[in-house]
Amino acid sequence: MINIKNIVTITAFVMGTNCLFSKELPKNLDIPVELTKSEQKKLERANELIKVGMDLWNQLNTRYNPEKVTNYKIDSIYNKDGYPILVKASKVFEEGITIKYELYHKNCVDFWSKHKYDSPTGLENAKKFQKDALKYIEKAQLNRRVAENYINEYVKAYNRFYEAISLELISVKKEGRALQIFRDWPVHYAYQWDDDVEKDLFPTKINPNELATIEPPKPTEKPKDKEPVKELPDSMIIFYSVQIAAHTILMPEARVRETIYNGKMKMQQIHEDGWYKYLIGHYKNYEEAAKLLNEIKVDKAFVVAYKNGKRVPLKEVTDSNNQLNGKN
Question: pTM of the predicted model, to two decimals?
Fold first, then answer.
């Protein structure tokens, strides 16, 4: 079992054992963060185990597809031959996922140890990812305990193990996303992650008696810094800039220059869609902005476009400019 200390047992997650979801497991993703050599070896080992588990799972879906079960007797090929493969796949997945989760979790803990006197702010998303990750692990552990009781009931065991493995893979991704946010602190980038549609794969049935234990969502904190937000100039109908940072909390320009960009170019600060964004450069064409981006060498910076003061996709304005200039 995944060994996480101080986990509060959740008994609310009860799924119908005869309910069969899609057999496609969530993808195994690596988070783009720097690791030590020893940590990288652990990650590689974890991925090897998870790959073995994926191969076994594909074998189950090909040879022992639970949707095709017609014989539920104890001596059926599904119980005699398929069940041992199912158990083996489950154990391999658990071993690999445990290594990967604990690797990410340890680095998250290290972040708080290093910054226990800094009072880091703007990390609500990361905290939520970690909280969700723990809940998914708790639900997965419950499903594993139930699955182990279905020794001669292949379909029920398959359903429960499927839920457990899926939840564990998702929990690793969430813990990794939290780590990525911690590593980028004090800057909070727009990470371009896909929507977490998998959070609705396994809806939780809540017992009314347990509603009192669920904390209501906390209101979003307003920026404490009263420094006025500068409005983006719209003297040009279309212009390009380089976005060097974005944060949900207002950061003084001096802090941005100290931690991200220490050049001499004028910095523009705007507030849109709940984000405080920091831009440099103000050009009529994309080429000049791209040249600036290449020169400043700021990690994760990128070119952005505005039309009449509003952010628009690059392709939309570059295509328009090319047409006006007679380019194909």
Answer: 0.56
Which H helix or E strand runs over 147? helix 124-147
Q: How far apart are CA 46 and CA 95, in angstroms?
A: 8
Strand, coil or helix: 38: helix
In terms of CATH architecture, what is 238-324?
A: 2-Layer Sandwich (3.30)
Query: Tens digits of per-residue pLDDT, 217-268?
Result: 444 444 444 444 444 444 447 888 999 888 777 777 877 888 888 888 888 8
Cα–chain-centroid distance for residue 44? 19
Query: Do 26 and 174 form a contact (C-beta atoms < 8 A)?
Result: no
Handedness of CA 272, 273, 274, 275 (dihedral sign): negative
Residue ranges per structural domain of the chain: 37-213, 238-324
Q: Retrieve residue 102's tokens.
A: 């604990």
- pLDDT, tens digit (0-9, with 9 covering 90-100), for 159-177: 999 999 999 999 999 999 9
Give the pairing type, strands 267-272 and 238-247: unpaired
Short-list 129, 163, 123, CA closest to 31: 129
Whether residue 268 contacts residue 232, with contact meaning beta carbons closer than 8 Å, is answered with yes
User: In the chain, what is the greatest distance between 2 CA atoms, to the nearest angstrom?
Assistant: 78
Q: Which of 81-85, 111-115, 242-246, 270-274 has the lowest mean pLDDT?
A: 270-274
Q: Which one is predicted more confidently, 46 or 272?
A: 46
CA distances from 266 to 232, 249, 261, 312 (A): 13, 21, 11, 22
Query: What is the Cα–Cα distance from 180 to 145, expressed in whole angstroms?
Result: 32
CA-to-CA distance for 321 and 327, rounded, in angstroms? 8
